[in-house]
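Components:
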Amino acid sequence: MSLLSVRNVTMKFGGLVAVNDVSFDVEKGEVFALVGPNGAGKSTVFNLISRFYDPFEGEIVFDGENLLDHAPSDIAQLGIARTFQNIELFENATVLQNMLVGRHTHRTSNLLSELFFLPSVRRAEIAHRRAVEDAIDFLNLHAYRDQLIAGLPYGVRKVVEMGRAMAIGPKLLLLDEPASGLSMEETQDVAFWVEDIKKIRGITVLMVEHDMHLVASVSDRVMALADGKRLALGTPQEVQNDPEVIKAYIGA
Ligand code: ADP
Ligand code: MG
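Structure:
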């Protein structure tokens, strides 16, 4: 069984069909990339999977659960974490504080038990704290741990966002353009991390990325979208050489 199964999903914004009858499966343990020109519908697919939007039509199954039966606040607990194309961090909080808050952004439903300090909640708190420290180690963020986000370079903020998502301990990590705005060196670091996230952590990764070099170097499979439609799906090489994909990029 696939970890994630997106089936015949359509999303409309008024008259605009942003995602048009798209289907794909992401297998456990793989790195799957979504590519396509601007406006192709890539971020909308992410927003559907993270339940920011209700699809107009279609079904999304994650780890045996029908995602559409779940509220957006359940997503992190089900095992899905994401980063955003435009970084979303608290500017006036430290790296550590931003990473610690990650678990709470999606857990309002347990507020009552937190108030009563149930032992299970405290245990979860300690486990999350450990996961945050672990992500700081993994992503080499020690030097920035107690610094405010506001003063940090863009490349570091992107890594903090990845760390916050990782610390939730997800089964599926959604990365929206992890390399955009990064230098070549920083992009290389992202490539190493994505590989380690997959190989060492065993986390499945679904990413949107423009840098085809990065996509080809880390992805097991790639799906190309254009105008909301699926154009091709296969290995990075198959997709790069697909005549429809070449046409969509050159014609755009
Ligand atoms: P990509 O991430 O591939 O660049 P998006 O998924 O962001 O593309 O957008 C796909 C299409 O849907 C675009 O035409 C965009 O303008 C439109 N769109 C995305 N989000 C919204 C929204 N919240 N309201 C209206 N239109 C949207
Ligand atoms: Mg986008």
